[in-house]
Design goal:
With 262 residues, the protein is an alpha/beta fold. The protein has one domain: Rossmann fold (3-Layer(aba) Sandwich). The chain is built from six helices and eleven strands. Helix 2 packs across helix 5 and helix 3 packs across helix 4. The relative contact order is 0.17.
């Protein structure tokens, strides 16, 4: 069983710098973490590998600082990893990002099963996984909150479609996107931490991908653009309450009521 898990490194908090000219996030040098939803997809892959055997490869697109996220994935149990890193990928929208990842999957020779997190905390589109599947012409199931059965030839999943649950069964190769309710991610292992330090990480540039058409990548390959993006203004202030405990309680109640907290 060959499993590829698509993961992403996202800003650690909402306090990020934005390039005023391009409207893109300044990812280099910013505090980052693994996209939380991707931890669940990696855990699902590891559990399937434990049941059926095979390999788990992590694939990500981003700057080479994503190596930190890859090391964490190694400590959870991933076998291999590839970073798609090139300035030509900068500014990609959903279409260009999903196409780049699909090209990375083709470069790796495809997979029996591709697993993505439901969405990322910076983009929140929840479209990358299905878009990858469409580029690769694969069957796919999104919003998966349970893997009800899995064997060497097919996978059966339960999808949470808001108003209904749907049981879907697909033969390999296929793609699923998983929700956070599907499992509890394991903690990194101290033993695997030592092993991860010696593991290599393959870095792939645009020219290494199967499709040499540069109009499919980055800003050039993105039909949608953000006209303007800016961080919300920070407002920090304090109020000092005076009087007895009962008087301060009343003042606090009035402040909360005025602010419409209840």
């Amino acid at each position: 069983m060959k499993i590829i898990v698509c993961m992403k490194q996202v800003p650690l908090s909402s306090k990020v710098e934005i390039d005023e000219e391009t409207g893109n996030l300044k990812r280099m040098g910013s505090a980052t973490r693994t996209n939380p939803f991707d931890l669940f997809s990696l855990e699902c892959a590891l559990r399937i590998r434990e049941q059926l055997g095979g390999t788990v490869t992590v694939l990500t697109m981003g700057p080479q600082q994503a190596e930190t996220m890859i090391r964490d994935a190694y400590m959870m149990g991933a076998d291999d990893a590839v970073i798609l890193s090139d300035r030509k990928f900068a500014g990609s929208d959903v279409l260009a990002t999903s196409y780049t990842l699909s090209q990375g999957i083709r470069l790796l020779g495809g997979a029996d099963l591709i697993i993505c997190g439901r969405q990322t905390t910076d983009g929140d589109t929840a479209q990358i996984g299905p878009a990858i599947a469409e580029h690769l012409h694969l069957p796919h199931a999104a919003w998966v909150n349970a893997i009800t059965d899995v064997n060497e030839t097919r996978i059966q999943v339960r999808q949470d479609l808001t108003s209904v649950f749907q049981i879907s069964e697909m033969n390999y190769p296929c793609l699923i996107t998983v929700d956070k309710d599907i499992c509890v991610p394991r903690l990194p292992s101290y033993r695997r931490k030592a092993e991860a330090a010696a593991k290599s990480i393959r870095v792939v540039s645009c020219q290494d991908l199967p499709d040499p058409d540069m109009t499919r990548f980055g800003l050039v390959g993105s039909p949608t653009t953000v006209e303007r993006i800016f961080p919300p203004p920070a407002s920090v202030g304090s109020v000092t309450l005076e009087g007895t405990a009962a008087e301060k309680t009343g003042q606090l109640f009035d402040l909360l009521a005025t602010a419409k907290y209840f």
